[in-house]
């Protein structure tokens, strides 16, 4: 049953935070036992417990878990596999919440601005839910932010810091401080739906000459900080498309189209879509793609993009000097030979799909996702 207000959400959140804290505290104790007492840690078991604790918990913590599960080597394999299976399966907020939110954002006469508005959400994600509606005879999607998400972000980020501290006990090779700062900044930006509407307009400009990529268009007069109205884009979910067993030729064409959707903005404008999991793509009958959800984008300066391109060329030609130049453009200083070799190992792993002309099956865990 759908919830009518935020009370049950608050109660559930408190319970789940207790679950997460208990799970992470237990994990920390076992990590200490593994390190100092030689006790063996059952990572698969504790990864499953963490996913269970996070399961159904809407909000930033769940979104961060999904993002981390898609980053190569950011988490041990057992944890990446479990967190990739997270689904936004908590029920959507009910009609009472929808009416209150819409009145607060678009005025008490908000229903008069829509020819039709579905009471039931058509999708529920980590930070908000989407309703299908109609404006001037055309279908639109209306995204509503869940209650008290700003406070939820602060609370979730405290939990995330705990999770990261446990991870660093497991593996000190990766410092999570910068990762935490970056995620914190991007998550707070996602709460401003006017900003997302501007991001959407930016992407429509950057991809205007790419006929194989389609994007929704925001309606500014029906958009506020916590309600975003946009043109409806029709398409089949990626997993539904793959379930039809398309030909290899069709799969390859779809991959090219998705590549353009992500890399054209980066290579030509220095902008990346920061939430590129497969739940944010849908497929049209002609194999062109719809790209959705623009709350999390990152704009890089030209020298950073230049470093990305230089490093690709350096790896392709085994040019160490060019590789060092690329790393320096990213802020690395006084690089030793050992550090250069470590960075090159990482870079070869990340760039390998672009450097090697070979068939690469995509694990099913890599194409799960919820926006």
Note down, in words, how this protein is organized.
β3 (128-135) and β4 (138-145) form a beta hairpin. This protein has helices at residues 7-37, 43-54, 60-70, 77-84, 95-106, 149-170, 177-189, 193-206, 238-242, 248-269, 302-317, 320-329, 337-355; strands at residues 116-117, 123-124, 128-135, 138-145, 213-214, 227-231, 236-237, 271-273, 281-283, 289-291, 297-299. It has 3 domains: 7-91 and 151-189, no CATH class; 95-145 and 192-298, Transferase(Phosphotransferase) domain 1 (Transferase(Phosphotransferase), domain 1); 301-355, no CATH class. Strands 1, 2, 3, 4 and 6 form a 5-stranded antiparallel β-sheet that branches. α1 (7-37) runs antiparallel to α2 and α11 (302-317) runs antiparallel to α12. The chain is built from 13 helices and 11 strands. The chain is of the alpha+beta class. The two termini are 21 Å apart.
Helix content: 40-55%
Q: What's the quaternary structure here?
A: single chain
CATH level-1 class of the largest domain: Mainly Alpha
CATH A-level architecture of the largest domain:
Orthogonal Bundle
Residue runs with pLDDT of under 50 for 5 or more positions:
1-6, 364-371
- Name the CATH homologous superfamily of the largest domain: Transferase(Phosphotransferase) domain 1
- Given the C-alpha coordinates, what overall shape results? globular
- Number of helical segments? 13
Cα-atom radius of gyration: 22 Å
Order of helices and strands: HHHHHEEEEHHHEEEHHEEEEHHH
Tell me the major beta sheet.
Answer: 5 strands, antiparallel
Enter the CATH topology name of the largest domain. Transferase(Phosphotransferase), domain 1
Q: Structural class, please?
A: alpha+beta
Portion in beta strands:
5-15%
Total DSSP E strands = 11
Mean of the pLDDT scores? Answer: 81
How many domains would you count in the coordinates?
Answer: 3
The end-to-end span amounts to 21 Å
């Amino acid at each position: 049953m759908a919830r009518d207000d935020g009370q049950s959400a608050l109660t559930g959140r408190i319970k789940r935070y207790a679950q997460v804290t208990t799970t992470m505290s237990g994990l920390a104790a076992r990590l200490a036992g593994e390190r100092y007492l030689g006790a063996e840690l059952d990572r698969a078991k504790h990864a499953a417990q963490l996913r269970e604790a996070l399961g159904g918990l809407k909000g930033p913590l769940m979104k961060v878990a999904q993002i981390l599960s898609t980053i190569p080597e950011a988490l041990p394999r057992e944890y990446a596999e479990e967190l990739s299976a997270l689904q936004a399966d908590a029920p959507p907020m009910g009609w009472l919440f929808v009416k209150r939110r819409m009145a607060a954002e678009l005025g008490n006469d908000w229903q008069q601005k829509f020819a039709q508005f579905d009471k039931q959400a058509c999708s529920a994600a980590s930070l908000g839910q989407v309703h299908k509606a109609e404006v001037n005879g055309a279908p639109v999607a209306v995204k509503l932010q869940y209650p008290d998400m700003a406070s939820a972000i602060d609370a979730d980020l405290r939990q995330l810091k705990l999770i990261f501290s446990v991870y660093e006990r497991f593996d000190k090779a990766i410092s999570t401080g910068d990762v935490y700062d970056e995620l914190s900044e991007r998550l707070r930006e996602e709460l401003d739906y006017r900003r997302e509407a501007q991001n959407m307009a930016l992407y429509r400009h950057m991809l205007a000459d790419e006929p194989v990529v389609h994007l929704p268009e925001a309606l500014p007069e029906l958009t506020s900080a916590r309600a975003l109205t946009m043109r409806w884009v029709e398409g089949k979910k990626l997993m539904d498309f793959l379930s039809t067993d398309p030909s290899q030729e069709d799969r390859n064409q779809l991959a090219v189209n998705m590549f353009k959707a992500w890399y054209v903005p980066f290579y030509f404008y220095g902008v990346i879509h920061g939430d590129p999991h497969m739940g944010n793509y849908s497929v049209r009958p002609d194999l062109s793609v719809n790209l959705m959800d623009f709350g999390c984008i990152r704009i890089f300066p030209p020298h950073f993009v230049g470093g990305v391109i230089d490093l690709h060329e350096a790896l392709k030609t085994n040019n160490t000097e060019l590789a060092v130049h690329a790393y320096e453009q990213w802020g690395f200083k006084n690089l030793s030979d050992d550090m250069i070799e470590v960075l090159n190992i990482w870079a070869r792993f990340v760039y390998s799909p672009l450097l090697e002309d070979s068939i690469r099956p995509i694990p099913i865990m890599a194409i799960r996702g919820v926006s």
